[in-house]
Amino acid sequence: MQVALILSTTPAQLTLDPACQPEVTLRSNLAKLILDPTHQPDLTLSPRLAELTLGSACHPEMTLSPGSTELTLDPARQPEETPAPNLAELTLEPVHCRPELLDACADLINEQWPRSRTSRLHSLGQSSDAFPLCLMLLSPRPTPEAAPIVVGHARLSRVLDQPQSLLVETVVVARALRGRGFGRRLMEGLEAFAQARGFRRLHLTTHDQLHFYAHLGYQLGEPVQGLVFTSRRLPATLLNAFPRAPFPRPPCKAPSLTAQAAPRAPKGSSLPPPPPLPEPLTTLPPPPGGPPPQSLLETQYQDLRRRPIFWMEKDI
């Protein structure tokens, strides 16, 4: 007994389970395929009509004629392939200006670096124009009712003692869109964003994307310290939370290392003289040459997991 399979569309390829049946390709002029059910219990259809498995349960996207051996696919119910966003239509917007996209942005970052969702949302919620500031690379809305698609993310922080520098962190692009120029578009956008606000240098770290950043003009640099907040004054409520001293204390005095006259011993006692003071310590000169420089192949910096960290910077 044989089963007749009739396709109402003309898919590019029909792939069968290789464990039971070799691969079969349908040409554009082939409308019917005869299979032996004793050798093909499972049927998988790919790639454009989404993966379809024929098993004991009926799939909602296919119709089986009762009492017949025909299997008909409804092209109107097949999922459409989502087109890739147009690079020219992408926009860069701060997270705090689009709070309705916080969840989507958190999912994008957690896909790369898993973390508590609550903690991730709290971190994104700290974004502000006063820095740190989180930027999203957005694709236009596919439909008027839908929200924009979060394509990428990057975080900018001020740098300690370098008022014209920013530290770039948490750079990520959606997995399905990598290798198509979206990472370059994200970095070029945040460079223009920083330059328009008076900053002249960007710093970042990477484990394994040295060549990507090198192609964008970044060079190896020295470590910098990013600032969690940039307020010059602590709020009074925070200062009042610390306990105050109940009474003024005298200033602490460092012990003197100069020789002092030994106190005179009372008559009739023979105390030994005090031991001499130790010789003053001398500071050894630093080793010649300093720390070994980092290169694109090795670096002296490591994270807590002992993975290499490459510090890079670029003048914008």
Automatic annotation (TrEMBL):
It comes from the Eukaryota. Residues 92-245 form the N-acetyltransferase domain. It holds the Pfam family Acetyltransf_1. The lineage of its organism: Eukaryota, Metazoa, Chordata, Craniata, Vertebrata. Residues 249-299 are annotated as: Disordered. This is Hyaluronidase-3 isoform X5. Residues 271-294 have a biased composition (Pro residues). Gene3D superfamilies: 3.40.630.30. CDD domains: NAT_SF.
